[in-house]
Design brief:
Length: 94
């Protein structure tokens, strides 16, 4: 394990939906079954994977919406994506 990898394992895991602007981390796993989304668990997980939210991907919160800080703009590797906070709660990061 490298020093950076060890550091990530020491950081607490949290849902990306709780992250504030400027947060950067690495996706640990998806937990779509724990989220209150209009989409089914399978649909939400599939959608997130198609957008690039996969284990090991680097993420950074770039911007928050004005009303209720929703949606958030997130950079996943080299792509910027807007996602609702309630759906971002299914993305566990460290």
């Amino acid at each position: 394990m490298t020093a950076n990898t060890e550091h990530l394992h020491e950081r607490p895991h949290m849902p990306l939906g709780k992250a504030r602007r400027g947060f950067s981390g690495v996706i640990q796993h998806l937990a779509a079954h724990d989220v209150n989304s209009a989409l089914s668990t399978i649909e939400l997980e599939s959608r997130l994977i198609e957008l690039g939210f996969v284990e090991g991907a680097k993420v950074e919160v770039l911007h928050e919406g004005i009303v209720g800080r929703d949606p958030i703009a997130v950079r996943v590797e080299n792509v910027t994506i807007a996602v609702r906070r309630r759906e971002a709660m299914a993305i566990i990061v460290a």
